[in-house]
Amino acid sequence: MGFGTEEAELFFVTSEEEEMRVDKLLALRYPHYSRSYFQGLIEEGCVLVNGTPVKKRVSLEEGDEVEILFQALPSSSLQPEPIPLELLYEDEHLLVVNKPAGMVVHPAPGHWSGTFVNALLFHCQGKMSTDDPIRPGIVHRLDRETSGLLVAAKTPAAHRGMVDLFAQRAVEKQYLAVVCGKPKSGSISAPIGRHPVHRKEMTVLGDGREATTEIQLLAFNEKLSLLLVRPLTGRTHQIRVHCRHIGTPILGDHTYGSDRYNQLFDPPRHLLHAYRLSFTHPVTGIPLRFSAPVPEDFSFWMQRLCGPSLCSPALVDGKEIFE
Question: Mind telling me the catalytic residues?
Fold first, then answer.
């Protein structure tokens, strides 16, 4: 699948459900979705039994752990919607936008409309060709509350090329984050996997997937710090999980954050901004580098940490401290 999901559900098979086909059981447990919808999820590898993708004809046993990673499928009939996009770059192959906080990247249960994909389909006006009908154009994702740089592909060649670049770690990503406490600059290497109990969450696990994040301390004001963050791998929720792992969670994060700090400062969202992105164009071979303006809700906290003189847009985009 490659993108991770926050729309996961998990349950354990009861004695009454034993020997039932998995697609039938899911349709009974979730009557708002059709059996054919779940068959589509199964074909996409989005239904796991005891941690392993299954076939729809598999019969279940009492105590089996069933995990569903809900996705938008072609049958969901993705609709173009006239949602404004802040375009930073566009050519015939791809585009780069500054995603606002609050925008979901692709449709899923609870967010079938108003997403970046809906906006992308409207913007391209039928001129986007894709071989991914589930998440057309999507090559990576940002969490709903994370603002900043998001790349989308407009052609299959660009899509395959960008996916390969991310897989090869040939895309340099830089984020700005406001965190609780004062971490030391350096590298965080800690494997990440799905939480064994809270299945919608990720956590540091000994048998998780390799994950490395570099952090640079930019400012500190006795309680909060401003960080420049470089994730060298692309695990789901990686920055948020690693910041919590070292005891300095992102301010405003209600999944991995500090309840005490969140109540004390009450930010409007988790304070993470995808600030810079550098890669070689997958079709033309031209080196590209983008920076996303810091939104007002994030800039407010930067000024509290750095003072107004360090937080003007010109200095944020040009100061060596951010290199």
Answer: 143
Pairing of strands 272-280, 147-153: parallel
> Of the residues 168, 189, 216, which one is the last residue of a structural domain?
168
Which of 44, 227, 239 is CA-nearest to residue 143? 239
Report d(CA 161, CA 167) in Å as an integer. 10
Counted domains in the chain: 3
Q: Are residues 181 and 259 in the same domain?
A: yes
Mean pLDDT by 10 residues, the chain (323 residues): 52 91 90 80 85 83 88 66 96 97 83 88 86 78 96 95 94 97 97 83 92 96 95 95 98 97 96 98 98 95 75 41 39
CA distances from 113 to 106, 139, 279 (A): 9, 19, 30
pTM equals 0.80
Confirm whether 128 is domain-assigned. Answer: yes
Buried b (16+ CB within 10 A) or exposed e, 165-200: bbeeeebebbbbbbbbbebeeeebebbbbbeeeebe
Domain housing 20: 8-71
User: Could you say which of 104, 137, 168 is where a domain stops?
Assistant: 168
My answer on whether 108 and 31 are in the same domain is no
Q: Which residues pair with 215 in a beta bridge?
A: 186, 229
Tokens of 301: 């906290």
